[in-house]
Design a protein that fits this description.
The protein is α+β, with helices and mostly antiparallel strands. Helices cover 24% and strands 36% of the residues. Strands 1, 4, 5, 6, 7 and 9 form a six-stranded mixed β-sheet that branches.
Length: 169
């Protein structure tokens, strides 16, 4: 069952109300420490390569599939860089659909293929240094994800609990 069919069936029931989805981001670095980013169709914002995890798919499989679909290149997942979620990862799309994403970010290396935007979701691919990322147009959550993962590549990152405590009984 494809994600599109699954999400479409849920949307038939809930309309544009907030939906929680699992997503992946894939960071590939060049020899100079720059990261590959994608510019999505319909805007000037830069994003990570990635997308939603489909039914019965592991996050690593989703990462490889999404990278292939969006860039035409095959990657090998090398490790988890971080796990992100919360308010910074809520999106309301142009059609009004509201989504909250829980994101697993992977580091990967190119295996084969030529990097080329798919022309459907992605219209441009380019390499950026951390200094350049700070100035690009992009959602705040994606900027935080990128700068956090680049700065802390030695240890996987996760958003800490901000003092969650159980409710009173």
């Amino acid at each position: 069952m494809s994600r599109t069919g699954y999400v479409a069936r849920i949307r038939e029931k809930i309309g544009t109300d907030l939906l929680m989805l699992q997503a992946v981001a894939i960071l590939v670095f060049d020899g100079g420490g720059r990261v590959l980013l994608a510019q999505q169709r319909g805007g000037d914002a830069w994003m990570t390569v990635g997308g939603a995890v489909e039914i019965d798919e592991t996050p690593a499989e989703a990462a490889m599939r999404e990278f292939w679909e969006e860039t035409g290149a095959l990657v090998r997942i090398t490790r988890v860089l971080g796990v992100f979620g919360g308010k910074d990862f809520r999106v309301t799309y142009r059609n009004g659909d509201a989504v909250a994403y829980s994101n697993v970010t992977f580091e990967a290396e190119l295996v084969s293929g030529v990097l080329e935007p798919d022309g459907d979701e992605v219209v441009r691919l380019d390499w950026f240094s951390p200094a350049q990322i700070a100035t690009l147009e992009m959602p705040d959550g994606i900027r935080r994800l990128l700068l956090t993962c680049i700065a802390g590549r030695s240890e996987p990152y996760f958003d800490p609990s901000d003092g969650w405590t159980p409710p009173s009984r």
